[in-house]
Every structure is written in C-alpha cells, then in structure tokens.
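I am writing to request your help with a piece of structural work I have in hand. A protein sequence and the structure tokens that stand for its backbone fold form the material at issue. Please examine both parts with care and let me know of anything in them that strikes you as inconsistent. The record follows directly beneath this note.
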Amino acid sequence: MSTAPGPTAPSPAGRPSASGNSPWVSGLVLFAAVVLIVNGILEIFQGIMAIADDDVFVSTPRYVFRLDLTSWGWIHLILGLLVALTGFALLRASTWARIAGIFFASLSMLGSFLSLPYYPLWSLVLIALDVFVIWALCVYRSDQPSYY
C-alpha cells in the first residue's frame, strides 16, 4: 500500500523546490527569456541597418571572414526574429523553447563573433549575454521528482 505524497511547503530562499530548482534559477530563466527577446529585437534592427545602408558599418580590409553586408543583414534579421520568438515562447515555459533558446543563443553568439571587427564592444556584450542565456537555460530542470 503506497501513500501519495502530500503538498509540499514553499521552499525557503536558496533551497531547491519540488522540481529541483532553487527560486533564483527560475528567476534567471525569466531573465534569460527577456534577454532573448531584447537581443532578438536588437538583431532585427542591426539587420535592417545592414540591409538599408551598408555605409553604417565600418569594414576591416583584412578580415578573414569577408561577408556581403546586405546578405549578412538578412541573416541578422531572420536570426533576430527567431531569437525574439523563442524568447516569447520561453515566457510560456515550453520545453522546446529552452532547447531552441540554447540553439539560437549559440547561433547568436557565433554571429556576434563574426561581426567583431564591425562592432567590437557591442559584439563582446552580446557574446557575454548569450553565454549567460545558455547557462541559465541549461541549469533549469523542469522535471518533477519521481516517487517510488
């Protein structure tokens, strides 16, 4: 004869809850979702700038990865749209959105690395934010504990 577990009491700050997460980890996932939304919107604007006027960006003559800025702008526009939509889906706590968020934050980090010569400080800031987003989405566990 097994007994079902009763309701769990709210966990004190810093202690894991019933799902194995501490409250600050859940808050970090919310922050990561907002960062994804803002990052996506900013990438959309960066893509529009590159598509509309190539002269906005400073070009490095001996950069290994020479890219046509108009096509690079379309890449940023599409990637930004996907990143922002993933951030909105992450607000709804979708498991697929966590996986997609990790994937798109990785792509965003790669894109920021490739655009280092055009906007070095901005690219470093975005790389740091993408690393944070990946970490926050990886440490969050949505699984409930199993009772034997």
Notes: DSSP finds four helices and no strands in the chain. Residues 35-51+81-143 form one domain. The CA atoms of residues 34 and 87 lie 6 Å apart.
